[in-house]
Amino acid sequence: MKEIEGRKEVSILVRSFYEKVRRDELLGPIFNGIVEDWEMHLERLTDFWEMVLLHSGPGAGKFNPVPVHKEVDRHTGSEIDQNHFEHWLSLWETTLQEHFEGEVAEFAKAHAHKMAHILFFKIMEGRSVGGHRM
Ligand code: HEM
Ligand code: HEM
């Protein structure tokens, strides 16, 4: 078991996580239907988590995940629900548990939960004001 200390570990985390996501019966079809360039996606998500977890890397200012997930919801016919977020979080925690220990790994779990609440709330809010999706 290792601690998450640098971009190398973040990259392992992101790549192992998305391998699970792509094989997940609920999430796999959604991701595989939207992401066209997986290598680019994985590097981008590594930038994101390196920024969140280690405050380093080229991610600063590059992300605005709320509109992205409203768009994902629209793309899937407004059918994202708690179940999708539960799958996402459970794969994230399993991946972390398989590879890492320590404070940063614990923060990665906690922060994903916080993001899930915000993203889910914003998706629902976006639906109820139908048409105004930003
Ligand atoms: C540069 C990127 C980010 C960094 C470095 C960061 C870091 C942090 C830190 C240090 C905390 C406080 C943790 C704690 O006290 O337990 C936090 C809380 C939180 N973060 Fe982030 N975060 C980032 C991006 C985001 C994004 C994109 C979202 C949602 C879309 C988000 C949602 C939240 C929420 C909901 C909380 C809890 C707020 C609260 O307890 O009052 N964060 N974040
Ligand atoms: C707490 C849970 C989640 C977190 C922290 C998270 C985080 C992110 C981030 C940071 C991005 C990159 C945004 C960008 O490129 O600017 C992203 C993209 C994406 N997310 Fe999530 N996500 C979560 C849950 C979900 C769920 C539940 C789904 C599907 C049901 C999902 C589907 C996607 C897809 C398809 C993309 C790629 C969008 C595109 O490239 O156009 N995410 N996510």
The Rg value, from CA coordinates, equals: 15 Å
What's the total number of strands? 0
CATH topology grouping: Globin-like
Q: Termini separation (Å)?
A: 41 Å
Organism: Belliella filtrata
InterPro entries: Globin-like_sf, Globin/Proto, Hemoglobin_trunc
Keywords: Heme, Iron, Metal-binding, Transport
Protein name: Group III truncated hemoglobin
Which SSEs are present, and which pair or pack?
Blueprint: H1 7-23, H2 28-34, H3 38-54, H4 65-75, H5 82-99, H6 103-128
Helix pairs in contact: 1-2, 1-3, 1-5, 4-6, 5-6
One protoporphyrin IX containing FE binds at residues 27, 30-31, 34-35, 44-45, 48, 63, 65, 68-69, 72, 80, 84-85, 88, 112, 115-116, 119.
Keywords: Heme, Iron, Metal-binding, Transport
InterPro entries: Globin-like_sf, Globin/Proto, Hemoglobin_trunc
Protein name: Group III truncated hemoglobin
How would you portray this structure in words?
This protein has 134 residues and is mostly helical. The protein has a single domain (7-128), classed as Globin-like, CATH 1.10.490. 72% of the residues lie in helices and 0% in strands. The chain contains six helices and no strands. Helix 1 packs across helix 3 and helix 4 (65-75) crosses helix 6. The chain starts with 6 loop residues before the first helix and ends in a 6-residue tail after the last helix. The mean pLDDT is 95. InterPro entries: Globin-like_sf (IPR009050), Globin/Proto (IPR012292), Hemoglobin_trunc (IPR001486). Keywords: Heme, Iron, Metal-binding, Transport. This is Group III truncated hemoglobin.
